[in-house]
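for the recovery benchmark. tokens below, seq after
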């Protein structure tokens, strides 16, 4: 190791000691003791095997020495505090203009932890929380982690039947939700004696709790008037029901121990999968799921800096929301701008209002932003404040990605849209796209694996690993320190199905996604193993046709191909599509274009029906809801049947 490098490391070491940064101290000390580990030879690929799990071709995109770094072994709250204890006056949360510092954040977490303990919540207890992303939701996530209990995050839009199931299978004694949901919960408990006996306390929280002074009083007054008029449900009053203020006030009586000890592999949160193609499944995240994600992001090429601002539009009850949208952002000492309501059409206005440095969104957000910038050239003229725009959840068409890049560049933004790939089961991030990587202009690529994440492609029938860089398609399988512990509540069989023992003797997670890996380690998702359409003895991935239509007909905003079961053909493909706003007047012409284009496909891939919609249905994490479209397709009369009837007539 060069003398100059040693001096630089020693300076970093001295600074780490002054900051009491334990992990940085250990990491640098290891470099100084073993300089060969940081040598060029360590990162050179000598004997290529052709298998991504061994060669790890993406290593060239990481700084030398990153593979030697260690992952945190502590509770997620403790790691958050360790990284921010020197930043007490930095802004942690921004809620409709009310700014909450890190000092206030940690104080409120402690008060919330005491309140839970005073209610009788113990280590390993499950607490079901059905809330949007508010400051109280954030406090509860970390407070329960401090005492060793487990928040079970549930979408507030969940049906009463599914809420009842979650209450029972989690064996929760406490249920927490919004005030507006109180009549439904009261009715549920009144009509279910067993559940009523199980639930000891229900907390109804108003989303106005943390609004800026004055705004909260105005909002509460409006709610009062609406309840008096009968246009807003009244919150029932019973002994087991409480509000946030009483909850916190009650916690002031607690004088005992707060923090539970750290144990590796302990469950820190349970979230539910999106249910895109199957029933939602309860996913168990550990402390390491959170802390390892932060460390992997930190070791990659990123522009996250303390005091940067992040626009938080992904709900906390989703893995991408709690892990990437809240925890990772706060771990970097940034200001997290909480948006509690789902925002799609109003997304550009939020960008204009808050001028965030970072955005994590779904393809639909990027499509809305792109359309807004194209149709409003005089608005949002300066986007130079953006330092990263990350899109996950689902695939963003390359044409739209590059078009958005161009619109950002026109407005002084020096970065490109960075597609990523992940799954809720993976914590949920698996890959990222850095500026260096994006310069290669890889159409359809979802980035490369995070530093401690191993990804490869396998033949789903033989379980043989396939070679990368040869345009071979297989199932994406992975190993990551952020992986879930498994599915909760007696879903052992589902957990066993998700993981497989590889021929290399290690456990691989089977994503169910089909894809390819290029020579640089870039990941390309081509479809779902389970989302295939079988017709007349052939099988094909619908994404192939969807991407083909989007790339060839610019007037199409989005499309989805689903199969309708048929006794003769096995399935009949039906295409649902939406048009861009400015193209809707030309609907008949565009429909003919789509039909003509699809006629060039192989016969078994040609859609039988073409249905234009105002918008495609979405799951809670803003993916296209294919199950809903399948149900709609099943309600459509097949044109094949119609033609037979017409012929007989």
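predicted aa per position
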């Amino acid at each position: 190791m060069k003398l100059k490098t040693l001096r630089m490391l020693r300076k970093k070491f001295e600074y780490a000691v002054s900051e009491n940064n334990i992990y940085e101290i250990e990491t640098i000390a290891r470099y100084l003791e073993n300089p060969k580990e940081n040598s060029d030879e360590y990162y050179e690929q000598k004997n290529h095997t052709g298998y991504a799990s061994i060669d790890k071709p993406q290593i060239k995109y990481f700084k030398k020495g990153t593979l030697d770094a260690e992952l945190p072994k502590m509770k997620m709250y403790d790691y958050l505090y360790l990284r921010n204890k020197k930043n007490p006056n930095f802004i942690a949360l921004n809620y409709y203009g009310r700014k909450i510092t890190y000092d206030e954040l940690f104080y409120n977490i402690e008060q919330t932890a005491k309140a839970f303990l005073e209610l009788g919540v113990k280590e390993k207890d499950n607490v079901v929380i059905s809330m949007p992303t508010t400051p109280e939701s954030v406090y509860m996530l970390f407070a329960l982690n401090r005492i060793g209990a487990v928040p079970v995050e549930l979408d507030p839009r969940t049906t009463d039947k599914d809420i009842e199931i979650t209450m029972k299978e989690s064996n929760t004694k406490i249920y927490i939700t919004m005030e507006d949901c109180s009549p439904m919960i009261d009715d549920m408990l009144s009509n279910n004696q067993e559940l009523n006996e199980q639930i000891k306390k229900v907390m109804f929280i108003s989303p106005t709790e943390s609004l800026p002074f004055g705004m909260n009083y105005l909002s509460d007054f409006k709610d009062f008037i609406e309840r008096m008029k009968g246009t807003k449900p009244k919150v029932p009053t019973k002994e087991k029901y409480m509000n946030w203020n009483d909850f916190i006030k009650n916690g002031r009586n607690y004088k005992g121990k707060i923090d539970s000890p750290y144990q590796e592999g302990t469950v820190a949160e349970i979230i539910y999968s999106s249910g895109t193609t199957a029933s939602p499944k309860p996913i168990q995240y550990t402390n390491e799921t959170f802390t390892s994600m932060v460390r992997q992001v930190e070791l990659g090429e990123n522009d996250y800096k303390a005091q940067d601002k992040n626009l938080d539009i992904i709900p906390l009850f989703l893995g991408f929301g709690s892990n990437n949208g809240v925890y990772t952002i706060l771990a970097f000492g940034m200001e997290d701008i909480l948006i509690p309501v789902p925002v799609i059409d109003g997304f550009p206005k939020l960008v204009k209002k808050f001028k965030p440095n970072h955005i994590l969104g779904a393809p639909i957000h990027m499509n809305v932003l792109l359309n807004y910038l194209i149709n409003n050239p005089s608005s949002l003229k300066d986007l130079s404040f953006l330092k990263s725009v990350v899109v996950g959840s689902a695939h963003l068409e390359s044409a739209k990605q590059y078009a958005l890049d161009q619109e950002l560049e026109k407005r002084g933004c020096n970065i490109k849209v960075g597609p990523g790939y992940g799954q809720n089961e993976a914590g949920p991030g698996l890959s990222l796209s850095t500026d260096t990587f994006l310069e290669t202009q890889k159409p359809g690529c979802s980035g490369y694996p995070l530093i401690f994440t191993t990804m490869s492609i396998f033949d789903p029938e033989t379980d043989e690993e396939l070679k990368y860089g040869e345009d071979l398609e297989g199932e994406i399988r992975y190993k990551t320190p952020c992986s879930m512990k498994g599915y909760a509540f007696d879903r052992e069989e589902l957990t066993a199905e998700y993981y497989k023992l590889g021929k290399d003797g290690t456990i691989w997670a089977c994503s169910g996604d089909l894809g390819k890996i290029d020579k640089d380690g870039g990941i390309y998702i081509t479809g779902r193993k389970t989302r295939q359409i079988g017709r007349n003895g052939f099988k094909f991935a619908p994404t192939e046709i969807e991407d083909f239509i989007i790339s060839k007909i610019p007037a199409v905003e989005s499309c989805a191909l689903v199969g309708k079961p048929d006794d003769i053909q096995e399935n009949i493909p039906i295409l649902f599509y939406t048009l861009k706003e400015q193209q809707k007047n030309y609907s008949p012409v565009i429909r003919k274009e789509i039909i003509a284009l699809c006629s060039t496909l192989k016969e078994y891939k040609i859609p039988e029906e073409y249905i234009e919609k105002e918008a495609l249905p979405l799951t809670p994490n803003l993916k296209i809801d294919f199950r809903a479209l399948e149900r709609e397709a099943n309600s459509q009369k097949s044109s094949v049947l119609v033609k037979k009837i017409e012929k007989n007539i």
